[in-house]
Amino acid sequence: MARIVIKSVAPLAYVPALGLEAYAKRNVDKTTFELIKIRASALNGCGYCSAMHTRDAQRAGEAQERIAALAGDWEASGLFTAKESAALRYTDALTRPDGELPDALFDEVTTLWGDKGLVQLAMAIAAVNTWNRLAIGTGMTADDL
């Protein structure tokens, strides 16, 4: 059981995170958003979010092979489209602690997704990273699903 249940302690605390999530859902296609959620959660070591997003992706019909690849060297799998791969590389760059965004990756994302698409992906990545920090910070685990 989570150490603290946010909605019990401070229900309004979820409002900003839900707004960010809602924006991402409206502006990033469902498949890409699910891939981003799984990848960022794996990088952040968030067991609760990894389990939840894996389950959601499976229910939406995502291939188990693609889901499993996201926990490791997904690039070597060759299972993702060019747009998905760019979004996943961008997820890696914005989620990893070094915070480096190489020019080549920025150019790749803007070429495939456009300027607005890059911003929309950044918001989706920020949303999942926010949820990961909240879940880890309150002690949520996969058992809490």
Describe this structure in words.
The protein is mainly alpha-helical and 145 residues long. It has one domain: Up-down Bundle (AhpD-like). Helix content is 72%, strand content 0%. The protein is built from eight helices and no strands. It has helices at residues 6-9, 14-27, 30-44, 47-59, 64-69, 74-77, 82-95, 103-137. The longest helix is centred in the C-terminal third of the chain and has 35 residues, at 103-137. It starts with 5 loop residues before the first helix and ends in an 8-residue tail after the last helix.
Summarize the structure.
This protein has one domain (14-136): AhpD-like, CATH 1.20.1290.
**CATH topology title:** AhpD-like
Low-confidence stretches: none
Sheet/helix structural class:
mainly alpha
What share of residues are in beta strands? Answer: under 5%
